[in-house]
Design brief:
The protein is built from six helices and six strands. It is α/β, with parallel strands linked by helices. The chain has a six-stranded parallel sheet with strand order 2-1-3-4-5-6, sandwiched between helices. Strand 1, helix 2 (about 35-40) and strand 2 form a beta-alpha-beta unit. The relative contact order is 0.17.
Length: about 190
């Protein structure tokens, strides 16, 4: 296992030039979720704020993203999970000038929420990485690959990590940090 100090250093280096905006999915991300662990380690990170984390309302997620982006001094890297990944992709299409890059992890299937038509159906104008698991109950890997292709994002399929959340027992998720570093290196 990689020492925590090394993980912290890598995460800080990955976002040295950018603020990070944490965009959780339904039910927010608990204390053992990699998003929460990253947020606690990143001095220039914020999390979107919602009154209701249990109702999948794309407009409310998008409005929360816009509010945080407008409060940021420069473009942010959106670190999004599940339903939050869908809202982040929508905002990247609408406000690319406010977003430096997208890190989309385990996006939920937009068909489950009847929002497919509201998502971008063309390549995004910013750098992005989409990570999905071969056994994610929220979206089949083939559908995740489809969205990565539509949005022209880098695509990383991972074997048997479920929904890539706290139940996946990833801890600080060093592999995710390395992928985030790969993404942010492309921005300079």
């Amino acid at each position: 296992m990689q020492p925590t100090a090394d993980i912290d250093s890598q995460l800080t280096q990955a976002l040295a030039d950018y603020s990070a905006l944490i965009v959780p999915g339904l039910n927010n991300s608990g204390t053992q979720h990699w998003q929460s662990l990253w947020e606690a380690r990143l001095p220039h990170s914020t999390r979107i704020e919602l009154d209701d984390w249990t109702t999948p309302n794309l407009d409310k997620w998008c409005n929360a993203i816009v509010k945080q982006l407008n409060a940021s001094e420069g473009p942010s890297v959106l670190i999004a999970h599940s339903f939050g990944a869908l809202a982040s992709a929508r905002m990247a299409a609408l406000l690319p000038e406010k977003i430096a890059a997208l890190f989309l992890v385990a996006p939920a299937d937009p068909d489950k929420f009847s929002i497919t038509q509201r998502l971008p159906n063309r390549p995004l104008k910013i750098k992005a990485t989409l990570i999905a698991s071969t056994n994610d109950p929220w979206m089949q890997i083939t559908k995740a690959a489809y969205w990565a292709d539509v949005w022209r994002t880098a695509f990383l399929p991972l074997d048997n990590l479920g929904h890539i959340n706290a139940e996946s027992n990833l801890g600080g998720w060093p592999q995710g940090i390395r992928e985030l570093q790969n993404l942010t290196r492309q921005l300079t």
